[in-house]
Give the backbone structure.
Amino acid sequence: MPLNTDKTIEGSFQLIGGDFSIAGESSARLKSILTDLGVQEDIIRRASIATFEAEMNVIIYAAAGTLHYEISPRQIRITLVDMGPGIKDIDQAMQEGYSTAPDWVREMGWGAGMGLPNMKKNSDEFKIDSVVGEGTTVEMVINLP
Ligand SMILES: Nc1ncnc2c1ncn2[C@@H]1O[C@H](COP(=O)(O)OP(=O)(O)OP(=O)(O)O)[C@@H](O)[C@H]1O
Ligand SMILES: [Mg+2]
C-alpha cells in the first residue's frame, strides 16, 4: 500500500479560458495532495507534468473546463473536460511540434507543440476525445506501484 489511505480521494477544479492568473494552480494543488498522500516522487513528477500541460491547454484554447482527479491505492486518474473549439485532427495535434498557438501565446513561452505528446509520455493510459465546436476530453491514468 503506497498511500497513506486505502480510500479513493477525488475532487475537481474549475478552469477558465484565458485566465493566466490561475494557470498552474490546479496542477500545483494536485501535486500537494499527492505529496501529502506519500506518493513517490517520480510519480508525482509525471502526474504534475501531465496535469500542468492539460491545464494549460484548457486555459489557452478553451472557454472553460473542469479538471477532475481520482486517487485510489492503484492509480491516479485525471480527467479534463472542456468547452472549447475542439480538435479537428487529433493525430495531427498529437504530433511533437504541432501547434496552432497564436503569437501572443508564443510570446508567453507556450506553443512548442509538446503538451499533448508529454501528457501521453507521462501517463500509463492516455485518451483524448474531441468534438469540433463542443469541446475536448482528456483522460490520463498513472498507475501506482
Ligand atoms: N483543449 C484543447 N482544445 C482545443 N484545441 C486543443 C486543445 N488542446 C490542444 N489543442 C490543439 O492541439 C495543438 C497541440 O497541443 P499541444 O499541447 O501538444 O501543443 P501547444 O499547446 O500548441 O504547445 P505547448 O503545449 O508545447 O505549449 C494545439 O496547438 C491546439 O491546436
Ligand atoms: Mg499545450
Summary: The pocket of adenosine-5'-triphosphate (ligand 1) is lined by residues 53, 57-58, 61-62, 82, 84-87, 93, 98-101, 110-116, 136 (CB under 6 Å). The two ends are 8 Å apart (CA to CA). The chain has a mean pLDDT of 95.
